[in-house]
Please model this.
Amino acid sequence: MSTQIFVNLPVKNLQQSIAFFTQLGFQFNPQFTDETATCMVVSENISVMLLTHEKFKMFTPKPICDATKSTEVLVCLSAESREKVDEMVRNAIAAGGTTYNEPQDHGFMYAHGFQDLDGHIWELIYMEPSAVDQAESAQE
Model:
């Protein structure tokens, strides 16, 4: 079995967060969804648990930071094209999110991102396949 990753993020309003990410095209696993949490499916091996603050507090003794004022994590997702990066950022803005910088074009890599309703930063990147191939060859 492949290793899976479950990113856990506290959200102030679970239903608003579900609506926001639904507008970005994400789906949710009903098996791990109730009034305190939902499991957003990113890919076969990546899920994001959106948890109410009360639920999130059950997993940590530390206070929850205000992501609109402090950075707790940067979630970075790959995209299949530059256009898909821009499309998701546009959809995030239309759904009530914000951007925090301008697109970054490094030639072989293109990046842009958004902040969700709670201020969590989502970085989106597209890397030219040839650049990925070169990096993999260098590691061998």
Remarks:
- DSSP finds four helices and eight strands in the chain.
- The two ends are 24 Å apart (CA to CA).
